[in-house]
Write a structure and sequence with these properties.
Blueprint: H1 2-27, H2 34-37, H3 51-61, H4 68-78
Length: 84
């Protein structure tokens, strides 16, 4: 869970850095088309196809009363081998 929070924090830092670069380019009067020059972004795949759904169904079929918080807390344990 801590690793995911660290990644989320890093993502926020990178977003802020990009925003600062955009403001700097605007200040310097850059008029080019940045949108056309952006590279294709890859998506981050955390779960295998249908992996999250299968996990939730398996946990709910156990018949134990669970809240969404309990399920979320169990995710890192169940998927620790798939998340780097």
């Amino acid at each position: 869970m801590g690793e995911m929070l660290a990644l989320r924090e890093r993502q926020g830092e990178l977003h802020n850095d990009l925003e600062a670069l955009d403001r700097t380019l605007d200040t310097l009067g850059y008029e080019g088309d940045l949108e056309a020059r952006q590279p294709r972004q890859y998506r981050l795949v955390i779960f295998a196809r249908n992996g999250l759904r299968q996990f939730l169904l398996r946990e709910l079929r156990k018949g134990e009363p669970l809240s969404s918080r309990n399920l979320a807390d169990d995710l890192p344990r169940d998927f620790s081998s798939t998340v780097d």
